[in-house]
Amino acid sequence: MKLKKTLMSIGLGVLLTACTDLDIPPINLLNENDIYGSNEGIMTNVARIYSRLPIEDFKYYYASGFNFNGTQYKQFSCLTGEAIGRDTPGAESEGFSYWDDTYSQIRDINMLIEKLPEYASSLNTSDVDTYLGEAHFARAYTYFALVKRYGGVPLIDAIVDYPASVSMEGTHLYRASEEAIWDFIAADLDYAIEHLPENSPAKGRVNRYVAAAFKSRAMLHAGSIAKYNSVNETQDQEGVSVRICGIPANRANEYFKASYEAAKLVVDSQKYALYMGQWQEGNAEAQYQNFKYLFLNETSENIFVKYFDELNSKHDYDHSTQPNQTKSGGNDSEVNPTMDFVEMFDGIAKDEDGNFKNIDDNGHYMLYNSPMDAFANAEPRLRGTVIFPMDTYRNQVIEIRRGIWTGDASQGILPLDNEGDVGNCNQLTDPNLHLAPGLGANPVINLNPGDPNGSTMRAAGANGPVSNWDFGNVGGMYVRKYMRETGVTNDFNSTQSWIEIRFAEVLLNQAEAAYELMLGGESGDNYLTVAYENINDIRLRAGAELLSSETELDNIDIIRIERRKELAFENKTYWDLKRWRTLYEEQNNRRYKILNPFYSTDAQKYFLSVKFQEPRAGRQYIYTYDTRYYYQPIPNSEINKNPNCKQNPGF
Questions:
Q1: How would you class 295 by CB atoms within 10 Å of its CB: exposed for 0-12, middle for 13-18, buried for 19 or more?
Q2: Are 530 and 514 in contact (CB under 8 A)?
Q3: Which of 634, 597, 279 is nearest to 466 (CA)?
Q4: Which of 32, 33, 340, 566 would you call most buried, defined as having the most Cβ atoms within 10 angstroms of its Cβ?
Q5: Do residues 525 and 267 lie in contact, with contact meaning Cβ atoms separated by under 8 Å?
Q6: Which whole-number Å values give the CA distances from 499 to 86, 264, 324, 439, 535, in the listed order?
């Protein structure tokens, strides 16, 4: 048999595989012993595997894929109702196929797992265990990215040595059952937990508790599919019927239990904790600052982090998400939180339907010295997540305004004609209403017409919202979470670290798994107590109202909403809504609500209009989720070259 050599280009640091008859590699190439027989060689391989992990971070772009290097006009949070953006007009799906890159990554990982033991005698045993643990973690992480998109996929746990020992037909692999993929992920993570050290060997590398934390996420997802998914797609594979989409419902508790126990391992280790370094009881300002701080700094909450820095890797999150007011060039305002999202939080005045109360009992707008006053009693976590109109960011008051009203306010201000409607405010005919069609046509309004030298305001402030296709705000708020307070904001100059797994998620995973186990009649721990205590720990740090007793935790939606509030804008909600199979329920001809602050010159106060997102450039912004995409289409290129790979239903 030909001697198989794994080659590495020294100049590029990129691993390649090839078959060759040469006994001596070219002078600029390294042989297997160089790669697997030394820590330096192995770390080059391991670093490459880490760099290709499918982490949905700042550089993940649902329109194009992972590690995207262009301006992100479409953001993941704009698919879930967390936010809106002018460039996300409806319930879109991923615009790329995560397949070929996946199996290239899996091949590299399998190569490491197979080859490293052959050279283990030249390495420290503990180092070998760590490398193999990292490889199994990375393989589980990669298969998770596949299975949550496609269901069952070809399961490759060894090198497919084509054409040396495998024919072309031998590469035409069937899809494994979805259940088998989830079980494989669990087994890989169990291996990682057993073999990884308690402490990460270096910044950004995993330890056993990272593996356990990730297992709590993956197994919670599997349990949800077993319980809530209704798709049952099978394939006849040489006389055997294999369920390639869906998991038997009777396995739900088993997966929930695995999630619960993995989270418990992390919690019991006491290595991580909710960050409370600036938190003060009864001090909303301190609680807000505490929550904001944890996303921009190293804290006790960080479990698994992807680091960015000036020298090696930067991203453009500030560039895409920042207010128009603070930008130094380029893009802005691609993520504008919705009122639907804000209404999830405690401490906001709401009507009997749970909607933000902006109209008083006499049918007039409620008036505020500042729009901030309407949210003064909201849980501080909300202010740590969004920038309200007239709040401060980068030492500036962020001026978000839809327009100025110059009419008589002495008897109150009646709602605008299209309050709660989808119509464009610019279509209103009230002569007292002064609007800006765009930030480039933003009229200056004299606040006291009787005094030509009096103070003035621009109708739409520095950011909008405006109605024409333009830069500027489109939803009445901005995102604060992860946004830097200093530094350049244009282009790819951002260096915030991405917290892929943090302790709050582990507590939420455990709480949800515990509650599902209670609902499923599972005996063991007092699951309701664990769920109750975890949720209250999260709410305490958030400054939210605590649940008064376990009996108040009487619906799983309480846990789900807590999760959506806590993990907002962290690219988790989309997958949660998919695994719960609730995305279609939420997005069935759905329009999302935006906040429109107006200033009354007569009252010298603000009123807040709430209406549906305005149409722009022919886009209506109506969201209806296509349930086919609970299982995404396998790329046609794979279907065409592999006759044994069956397409997902509906495609």
A1: buried
A2: yes
A3: 597
A4: 566
A5: no
A6: 27, 20, 26, 35, 20
CA distances from 308 to 60, 138, 498 (A): 14, 19, 8
Identify any residues that bridge with 461 across adjacent strands, giving them in sequence order: 400
Q: Residue 28 has what DSSP assignment?
A: T
Query: Residue 371's CB: how many other CB atoms inside 10 A?
Result: 23
CA atoms of 271 and 503, how far apart (whole Å): 10
Are 473 and 465 a contacting pair, CB within 8 Å?
yes
Q: How far apart are CA 466 and CA 496, in angstroms?
A: 30
Pairing verdict, β 403-405 and 593-600: parallel
- pLDDT band at residue 29 under the 50/70/90 scheme: low
Please give the Cα distance from 347 to 341 (Å, whole number).
14
Residue 25 burial (CB count, 10 A): 15
Query: Beta strands 392-393 and 386-387: pairing type?
Result: unpaired
Three-state secondary structure along 496-538?
A: CCEEEEEHHHHHHHHHHHHHHHHHCCCCCCCHHHHHHHHHHHH
C-alpha triplet 473, 479, 482: angle, nearest 5°: 140
From first CA to last CA, the distance across the chain in angstroms is: 42
DSSP 388-438: -TT-EETTEE--B-SEEE-S--TT--PPPTTTTS-S-GGG---TTEEE-SB
Q: Residue 395: left (phi > 0), alpha (psi -120 to 50), or beta?
A: left
From the list 498, 510, 89, the residue with the least C-alpha distance to 317 is 498
How many whole angstroms separate alpha carbon 13 and alpha carbon 41? 10
Cα distance between residue 627 and residue 429, in whole Å: 41
Per-residue model confidence (pLDDT) at position 4 = 31
CATH of range 4-54+98-271+631-641; options 3.40.50.410, 3.40.190.10, 1.20.1600.10, 1.25.40.890: 1.25.40.890
pLDDT digits (tens, 9 = 90+) for 461-488: 999 998 888 789 999 999 999 999 999 8
Please state the φ and ψ torsions of residue 333, each to the nearest 5 degrees: 65, 35
User: In this structure, are residues 259 and 215 in contact, taking their beta carbons and an 8 Å threshold?
Assistant: yes
CB 63 within 8 A of CB 79: no
Phi-psi region of 49 (alpha: psi -120 to 50; beta: other; left: phi over 0): alpha
Backbone angles phi, psi at 376, to 5 degrees: -60, -30
Sign of the four-CA dihedral 351, 356, 358, 363: negative
> In angstroms, rounded to a whole number, what is the distance separating the alpha carbons of residues 609 and 415?
8
Average pLDDT across the chain, whole number: 93
- Give the bridge partners for 242, in sequence order: 235
Q: Residue 370: count other Cβ atoms within 10 Å of its Cβ.
A: 16
Query: Which DSSP helix (H) or strand (E) runs through 108?
Result: helix 100-115
Decide: pTM greater than 0.70: yes
Round to whole Å and give the CA distance between 344 and 341.
Answer: 6
Structure tokens at 616: 């722009």
Task: Burial-class residue 304 by CB neighbours within 10 Å (0-12, 13-18, 19+).
Answer: buried
Sorted by where each begins, the domain ranges of the chain are 4-54+98-271+631-641
3-state secondary structure of 301: coil
d(CA 495, CA 319) in angstroms, rounded, equals 12
Per-residue model confidence as pLDDT tens digits over 396-454: 999 999 999 999 999 999 999 999 999 888 889 999 999 998 999 999 999 987 777 88
